[in-house]
Write a structure and sequence with these properties.
Number of strands: 35
Distance between the termini: 90 Å
Number of helices: 16
Strand order of the largest sheet: 4-5-6-7-8-9-10-34-35
Helix content: 10-25%
Strand content: 25-35%
């Protein structure tokens, strides 16, 4: 009571002060009789329990319960065969003692054990002993476990970072002493920042939660940087419903060959188990593609699939606009080539590459875009500016009425060579760019570069059709140029003008030595910065598609063309001309096996005309198979050659952006990219199987099987992930003739689409050697940039 009084005196004093202050302010002083009335209006009235804590439990959720200083105890009395309930504060009984019968005590004990058991399942500890017991006698569960211990399997937090982080902070200054530039353009400066991070991080919380991450700014491929957060309770407890939770780099391996899983995914994955049923759910982004290669008798059977936007960019070029304009006319009657043009000699130049250069093949060249062009509309400098260089000497025409190319097709080269400075290595750029003189634009009309002459093993050319094919794809900033000498109708010299049928200059014509460096003028096929709005961009062939194979042969090569309709099913024809195969529409099936003009449903394998066997490329016998040429093809097959009907069908299926814009811009039109070129080829016999890729992910699964038998890595085969090849060690497998299948995942280096995978795997198993399951997988794509079309209406 003394303690209670010491607590109440300050409170009463405060109340008196408040009342006195209110009285002095002239306010109403409440009567003491009014206070109990207001106090009884509490939102949550508290009521004291009349009995013991066993029989009279408090059900008010806002009650703070009894404090820990009150010791509640139940003791058994053997004399009365009853249980005495006491509540004490120290040695003083807080409430009068009561008794329980044996049945009443057992009911209370059962309720208490059920309550503690459900808390244990939820991972919540009671925080106090069960009336003198640390281990419950019924469930044998340690009641001291808390939530963190239940979730993570321990309290330990271990994080181990390794690696280095470097920063480079500086600046750059560049001065170009070019008289054609303004003063502010000559000087360029600015800050320069660079980071070098090589960091590995491993961490864990308890025994269940693991973290692994590594990041390297110098990594060449995305799959070299990993991030994975894994929660695994399977090894810790058998009764948990949630077995695994993974985030980051995850995988979905499946034991069935009917539906292939994936190893290279980035997303969220979880495993659940309900008795004998196990569920695996996944939502992620897929960064790889399933590939399959089949070998039979030592030869590799490889399937390929190409969309219209997969043409062989920057590797095949027409020598001149003349060759482009006469291309379709020359191939009208396959396999005969209707052309009077035939290349006699050719030199191909490409910007010097320091790694592959040889001193004997280097030369300073000036590549002219408009060399050998007679039509003003074909000039890169524009039709009006081209009038300054027209006309040239009288130019002959072929039997189709198209003017043939030569150095005298216009007066451009003659005007350049009027000045001796044109040959000077140090003066030619200034001379050509002089606004008061020729006024040519560097990068558009000409390019002056140190170039390397390619040897004949680095390119091939079709003498009659007038195009070249490079073995290696040039870099975007490299210049490609040619000089060629040809025969027209079997003649070397134009009988009308007396000029030689030649475009550009050969190295043998213009000598250059250490005492007098002289440039040569050649025809430019590709500039260092291609512009899609210039006529020269059309010299790049966009009707050649790579299959991925080399040294193809007609016996083991198949190809067909499909169209993927709205239902997602590829069809060999389009709806408007049902029953007419697309292979025939695109004139890829024009002949039978005896080369008679009769379609037989098989691709016409004609070397140099429909296929380039050495490089494994397929060529359409039309210039723009999915553009302007498609309209001409449709006119020939629609009833009565109805041009209006052909135009309607063409507007539905056309993909003209492929030929008018860059490939990057064209790929944004996904709805037009619905044609599919699909086929297979077989390479030569070898114990090495090329995967047509390189730098495979070290964790990528490569599965090799012979028939239904799975081969063992290390004894039957080895995998070189850097070079992308599988070597068969067991020669008996190759000699047996049993098909060998290689399944692997190829991580995409570049992707223009976001591929999302959603998967669900259900598996029911009562024994380790027997299971039944079902798998659902959904893979869909969408572009990085969503496009919306707005149609403006009128009132």
């Amino acid at each position: 009571m003394n303690h209670l009084g010491s607590l109440l005196l300050p409170i009463l004093a405060s109340v008196c002060i408040v009342i006195s202050v209110a009285a002095e302010g002239g306010r109403h002083i409440p009567d003491w009789n009014e206070l109990p009335v207001k106090m009884s209006r509490d939102t949550v009235p508290l009521k004291d329990r009349p009995g013991n804590f066993v029989e009279n439990r408090i059900k008010n959720p806002f009650d703070l319960k009894d404090p820990n200083s009150i010791d509640q105890d139940i003791e058994y009395d053997p004399q009365t065969n009853s249980f005495k309930v006491t509540e004490k504060v120290g040695d003083v009984e807080y409430r009068p003692g009561t008794t329980l019968t044996f049945d009443e005590y057992m009911k209370f004990k059962a309720r208490q054990q059920d309550k503690d058991y459900y808390k244990e399942l939820a991972g919540i500890s009671t925080g106090k002993k069960s009336y003198g017991e640390l281990i419950d006698p019924i469930t044998k569960i340690d009641l001291k476990k808390n939530l963190a211990d239940k979730l993570f399997g321990g309290f330990g937090i271990d994080i181990k970072p390794q690696g280095s982080i470097g920063f480079f902070v500086g600046g750059y200054y560049n001065f170009t002493d070019n008289p054609q530039l303004q003063d502010y353009q000559k000087r360029q400066w600015g800050p320069d920042f660079d980071t070098d991070i090589r960091m590995d991080l491993t961490g864990s919380i308890g025994d269940k939660l693991k973290l692994n991450a590594n990041y390297d700014t110098k990594a060449a491929f995305d799959f070299e940087n990993k991030l994975k957060l894994a929660y695994d309770s399977e090894k810790y407890s058998e009764d948990d419903i949630i077995k695994k939770i993974e985030a980051g780099n995850v995988s979905l391996p499946l034991r069935t060959k009917l539906i292939q899983g994936s190893q290279n995914l980035f997303g969220f994955k979880t495993d659940w188990q309900f008795g004998y049923l196990r569920l695996t759910g996944l939502i992620s982004q897929q960064k790889s593609k399933q590939e399959n290669i089949q070998v039979k008798g030592g030869g590799v059977i490889q399937e390929f699939e190409i969309r219209p936007d997969g043409y062989d960019e920057n590797r095949h070029f027409f020598l001149s606009p003349y060759n482009r304009n006469t291309y379709e006319f020359a191939l009208e009657k396959l396999p005969e080539i209707n052309s009077q043009f035939k290349v006699k000699d050719i030199e191909v130049w490409i910007t010097e590459d320091a790694q592959n250069s040889r001193e004997t093949e280097l030369r300073d060249i000036v590549a002219l875009a408009d060399l050998g062009v007679s039509d003003p509309e074909q000039f890169d400098m524009g039709e009006m500016a081209a009038q300054s260089y027209l006309p040239g000497r009288a130019v002959s025409k072929d039997k189709s009425g198209v003017e043939v190319p030569s150095n005298t097709s216009n007066t451009l080269l003659d005007k350049i060579l009027e000045n001796p400075e044109a040959r000077d290595l140090n003066k030619v750029v200034r001379y050509l760019s002089d606004p008061n003189g020729l006024n040519l634009k560097q990068g558009r009309d000409f390019e002056k570069v140190r170039a390397r002459r390619l040897n004949q093993s680095e390119y091939s050319y079709h003498a009659d059709l007038g195009f070249i094919s490079l073995r290696l794809r040039p870099r975007p900033n490299q210049v490609l140029a040619v000089a060629y000498h040809y025969l027209q109708n079997g003649r070397d010299i134009d009988p009308r003008s007396g000029a030689t049928y030649k475009v550009g200059e050969f190295t043998s014509e213009v000598k250059s030595d250490s005492l007098s460096y002289k440039v040569i003028f050649v025809k430019m096929l590709k500039s260092s910065a291609q512009r899609t709005d210039l006529p020269s961009y059309r010299q790049m062939m966009k009707n050649v598609y790579p299959t991925g194979g080399f040294n193809l042969n007609p016996d083991d090569f198949t190809i067909d063309i499909y169209y993927e309709d709205r239902d997602g099913k590829p069809k060999r024809y389009i709806q408007e001309i049902d029953g007419y195969p697309l292979l025939n529409l695109f004139r890829m099936d024009f002949l039978n096996k005896t080369n008679d003009p009769q379609p037989d449903g098989v691709f016409d394998f004609i070397s140099g005309q429909t296929v380039i066997p050495a490089s494994g490329a397929v060529i359409f016998p039309v210039l723009e198979p999915f553009g302007s040429s498609l309209y001409k093809l449709l006119v020939n097959v629609v009833p009565n050659k109805d041009t209006m009907l052909a135009r309607t069908i063409f507007d539905k299926y056309k993909y003209t952006a492929l030929y008018d814009t860059s490939i990057t811009s064209a790929r944004r039109e996904l709805k037009s990219n619905q044609f599919i070129i699909r086929g297979s080829y077989k390479s030569g016999k070898s114990n090495e199987i090329s995967l047509n890729t390189f730098n495979l992910d070290p964790n990528a699964r490569v599965v090799v099987s012979a028939g239904s038998r799975s081969l063992v890595e290390g004894s039957d085969y080895i995998v070189d992930r850097n070079l992308g090849k599988v070597t068969i060690l067991n020669e008996a497998l190759l000699q047996s003739g049993v098909p060998i299948n290689v399944d692997f995942e190829d991580s995409a280096l570049f992707s223009f689409q976001t591929k999302t995978m959603i998967g669900l795997r259900a598996e029911y198993s009562k024994r380790k050697d027997w299971s039944v399951g079902a798998t659902y997988m959904h893979l869909f794509e969408k572009p990085f940039t969503e496009k919306s079309k707005y149609r403006r209406g009128s009132n």
